[in-house]
């Protein structure tokens, strides 16, 4: 009689099993599942491994933090805007890393619920975030320069929204000359 070869059956870990272990489906699932299956992890070994690769999820606060409301409405459109701004700030101010916030008089929403409204400022642990467009241009005296030229240059050298801004940008020489000749 020959030896009977028994082929072991590998149990395949799936995303469903990870969700049954109370993990939220996310990008990390794919790599974790591949590693667990390649290394035949199960039971305690699987749980120990998952603890090392699963991201820490911090749930939003139950109640929004206080924020200053430096804004008022006088017309029907302004009341509608005000309600939308308050709604988005209520969601935003439940973010666990925030410590304070404020709305400026010209605040309005521009994105999804919970996104910093234009004219909104939030203080996070070790950071300040705001969303405003040309907030200082209104009070900048540019002399006899055509405002559209200034705004066009500002638009081309800055970035609104996520992703940052260019490291360095030069002014067109004619605009630089006009600025240097202007008496402030």
Characterize the structure shown.
With about 180 residues, this protein is an alpha+beta fold. The chain folds into three domains: about 15-55, no CATH class; about 70-130, no CATH class; about 135-180, no CATH class. The protein is built from six helices and four strands; from the N terminus they run H-H-H-E-H-E-E-E-H-H. It has helices at about 15-20, 30-40, 45-55, 75-90, 145-155, 175-180, and strands at about 70, 100-110, 120-125, 125-130. The chain has a four-stranded mixed sheet with strand order 1-2-3-4. Strand 1, helix 4 and strand 2 (about 100-110) form a beta-alpha-beta unit. Residues about 1-10 and about 160-165 have low confidence and may be disordered.
Total count of helical runs of at least 4 residues: 6
Mean pLDDT: 78
Which spans have pLDDT < 50 for at least 5 consecutive residues?
Answer: 1-8, 161-166
Give the helix/strand class.
Answer: alpha+beta
| Helical amount | 25-40%
The largest sheet, given as strand count, sense and whether it forms a barrel, is:
4 strands, mixed
Backbone CA Rg: 27 Å
Write the element-wise H/E pattern from the N-terminal end onward: HHHEHEEEHH
Number of domains: 3
Which strand-content bin applies to the residues?
Answer: 5-15%
- Taking the alpha carbons of the first and last residues, their distance comes to 103 Å
Extended strand count = 4
Order of neighbouring strands in the sheet with most strands: 1-2-3-4
Q: So what's the overall shape?
A: elongated
């Amino acid at each position: 009689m020959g030896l009977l070869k028994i082929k072991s059956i590998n149990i395949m870990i799936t995303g469903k099993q990870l969700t049954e272990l109370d993990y939220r489906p996310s990008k990390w699932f794919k790599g974790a599942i591949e590693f667990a299956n390649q290394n035949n992890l199960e039971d305690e070994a699987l749980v120990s491994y998952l603890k090392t690769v699963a991201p820490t999820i911090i749930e939003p606060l139950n109640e929004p933090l206080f924020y200053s409301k430096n804004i008022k409405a006088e017309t029907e459109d302004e009341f509608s805007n005000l309600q939308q701004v308050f709604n988005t700030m209520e969601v935003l101010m439940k973010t666990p890393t925030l410590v304070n916030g404020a709305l400026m008089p010209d605040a309005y929403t521009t994105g999804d619920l919970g996104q910093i409204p234009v004219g909104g400022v939030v203080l996070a642990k070790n950071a300040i975030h705001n969303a405003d467009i040309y907030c200082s241009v209104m009070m900048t005296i540019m002399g006899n320069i055509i405002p559209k030229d200034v705004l066009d240059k500002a638009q081309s050298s800055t970035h609104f929204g996520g992703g940052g801004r260019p490291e360095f940008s030069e002014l067109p020489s004619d605009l630089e000359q006009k600025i240097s000749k202007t008496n402030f």
